[in-house]
Design brief:
- The chain has a twelve-stranded mixed beta sheet.
- α4 (154-164) packs antiparallel against α5 (171-181).
- The chain is globular.
- It contains five helices and twelve strands.
- With 238 residues, it is of the alpha+beta class.
- The protein has one domain (8-229): Lipoprotein localisation LolA/LolB/LppX (outer membrane lipoprotein receptor (LolB), chain A, Clam), CATH 2.50.20.10.
- It has helices at residues 8-15, 84-99, 102-107, 154-164, 171-181; strands at 26-33, 40-46, 50-54, 58-63, 68-73, 78-83, 114-125, 128-137, 140-147, 187-197, 200-213, 228-229.
- β5 and β6 (78-83) form a beta hairpin.
């Protein structure tokens, strides 16, 4: 299976911004940097049970109630769909692969335990008071600033794992990470991620710059009309 790191990775980092504390719809604007090229402006549309994120090149739509994800390639005018069930099978195959390759598992830093630490500092981001958290899993390090007044349903973190399943052997590390993120009080409005794999370093940041309450336009959570549907890369072969 061929794995893609961009733009899904950017969409995921941008997705760590905010969810409604109640049923009110929100539009979130975030700035994302990856260390390569200029910063990217990412937009999120958030309802009670659906999320759509976009960086101008690709969109990702999550249906939290059904566990479905739609990935849309805006440049190729194509899209594909997957589900938590398909993603779960992919995680199982990745774990099996790592179990049979101790050297690869060692290079990825192991992922048996996720450490979460709450700091004493606070910041105001996009009008919300945020508490500082740090997390580590293997060679992945996260710094998070979580808004106390914004709560995410558990299904949201499950949806985030869908995106990182595209990262091949790294996927299971994020699986464990997002399980622990369900325990954080509040929701991250800013994130900073550092990782080191096979001699390559990655530094990615995201910070919400604007939160816009208000109704989301009809059709926002539907694939664009006229786009071609492709087979999901997670679809099991018969």
């Amino acid at each position: 299976m061929k794995f893609s790191r961009r733009p899904l990775g950017i969409l995921l980092i941008a997705g760590l911004a905010a969810l409604p504390a109640a049923a009110e719809d929100l539009t979130i604007i975030s700035t994302v940097t990856t260390g390569k090229g200029a910063p990217v402006t990412a937009t999120q549309y958030l309802s009670a049970d659906k999320v759509r994120t976009s960086d101008g090149r690709a969109d990702t739509i999550f249906d939290l109630s059904s566990g479905r994800m739609v990935h849309i390639d805006l440049q190729k005018k194509e899209y594909w769909e997957t589900s938590l069930a398909e993603i779960g099978q992919q995680f199982a195959e990745i774990e099996e692969m790592l179990d049979g390759n101790p050297m690869m598992a060692k290079m990825l830093g192991g992922a048996a335990q996720v450490e979460v630490r709450k700091g004493s500092e606070t910041r105001e981001i996009a009008g919300y008071v945020c508490d500082h958290y740090s997390m580590s899993v293997g060679k992945l390090l996260f710094e998070l600033w979580a808004a106390r007044d914004l709560k995410a349903p558990a299904e949201y973190h499950d949806a985030q794992k869908m995106v990182y399943a595209t990262m091949g052997p790294m996927a299971s590390r994020f699986d464990k990470l997002y399980e622990e993120m369900k325990k954080i009080e509040g929701f991250p409005l800013a994130t900073e991620m550092d990782s080191q794999l096979m001699g390559m370093k990655l530094h990615t940041t995201s910070e919400a710059t604007e939160v816009r309450p208000g109704p989301i336009p009809a059709g926002t959570f539907d694939p664009p009309a006229g786009y071609k549907q492709k087979k999901s890369p997670f679809k099991q072969k018969k």
